Structure prediction request, 534 residues.
Amino acid sequence: MANLHWLANPGRFLRISNAVVPYLAGLTVVLLAYGLWRGLTAPHDATQGAPATIMYMHVPSAIMSMTVYGGMAVASAVALIWKHPLADIAAKSSALIGAGFTATCLISGSMWGRPTWGTYWAWDARLTSELVLFFVYLGYIAIWQAIEDPQRAGRAAAILALAGSVNLPIIHYSVEWWNTLHQPAGLLQGKTDPVLAVPLLTLLAAFFCFYVTVLLLRMEREIVGRKIRQLRLLQAQA
Amino acid sequence: MAEFFAMDGYAFYIWPTYIVTLGFMIWLVVSTLRGLAADRKVLAELEKNAPHRARRRGETASSSPSLRGAETSDA
Amino acid sequence: MSRFSAVVARDVRLALRQGGGSYWTLMFFILTVTLFPLGVGPDLALLSRIGSGVLWVVALLAALLSLDRLFQADYEDGSLELLALAPLPLELTVLAKVLAHWLTTGLPVTLLAPLMGAMLAIEPAAYPTLMVAMLLGTPVLSLVGSIGAALTVGIRRGGVLLSLLVMPLYVPALIFGALAVEATLEGLSPRPHLLLLGADLLVALALTPWGAAAALRLNLE
Prediction:
């Protein structure tokens, strides 16, 4: 019974999470709807034309793909240092969300690249490091699947996530050194036209709320899954 | 309206992007909720077999009373 | 220090004895490089253009192929637990095993590089750069790979998973290593690329033993 003790804490987490999720979900839907409406009805960008509409999916996906990894790395560090079970669960529950945003970033980028650069894929620095980030996510998910015991899998995955977080800046820098033809990021330097910036920032907020909502739901699922595992083990022993 | 969907002739690039991105988000929510509902059901059934353990854990599991307990005895 | 060298000597001896795997890794390196001209055609101009990249990718694969034995054999026969309990800190034991791995794979691959470079029609003027780059880059492959090897040590068929985990982390070494050779071939200085490769090596040297040792402790519980 001693190893069931930590469930007391997730119990409190679940109560708070269940109370917050409906509001977060509502906020996500409102922000998403407003951002899409403003973005899709805005006049098309003078230089890039209609394809720049893809930006409203591409840029939030790209920012979220890195934000989620950052959150995953912090949660992994907390899990390793303080052995907090919720941190472990948060890191695991983030992985699929992050991998998905990385994939949508790559797909939307390639759909944007075709009409503007004339190619679906270029071995440009940011595309390449985004692709590597996707592979890192896949490796992280794979190690969770490979080790059955959640405690051990969690610590192995945390070590991998931290190794990746040290490596990703180096990878990004090295790829940039290797090749660059991507346009510089201008969103947060105030250069973007407010007509584009309002829907873009709204959608970014929407994607972030989506991430938190789904993360809480996935964490709950993971907690329930672990309880099932514990109870089955106890029944098998009885 | 047709002009809006045509996107200056770039519809082929723009709409699939939106469908894929928003589709992924919807899929993720639906699959998470479905999995959660299924797991909660299994948990409720397991806790029915071990009620004394469930009560000790001070948390609000959504137990559906319609579920029939499995045959395996707990003691 | 003598304990450190004892671990190195033991691992080198094990890798070099019959069936130890070091020769097989080298054979793999040579055979795979040979396959490239057969695959893309005997056009020497094309081969000399892609040659340095081919050598790096194959060196990387050769390192991956041998890495899954880095801790596996010791884990299976229980000697890893003895090493973990030994007075030598596990971090240094990891470093010793990595050094032994590099001595039996990375170093021979580096020495063979000019020979294989000749088969790929790389300009002989680039051989010094190629060898210096490999001398700096192949230890990175062994070091970074040790984390993956330590994480997958208890997993059945962990070799493929190891490759999946480690390959993305090899990107910087691959890029700087190949760029150094390319710069030399274009008459530019390979110095900045080599310096960056050296920096990558120092970062790997400073951090990976801790990661790998933590992963080993986890798998020994």
About this structure: Chains B and C do not touch (no CB pair under 8 Å). Residues 12-50 of chain B form one domain. The CA atoms of residues 51 and 57 of chain B lie 10 Å apart. Chain B is about 65% helix and 0% strand.
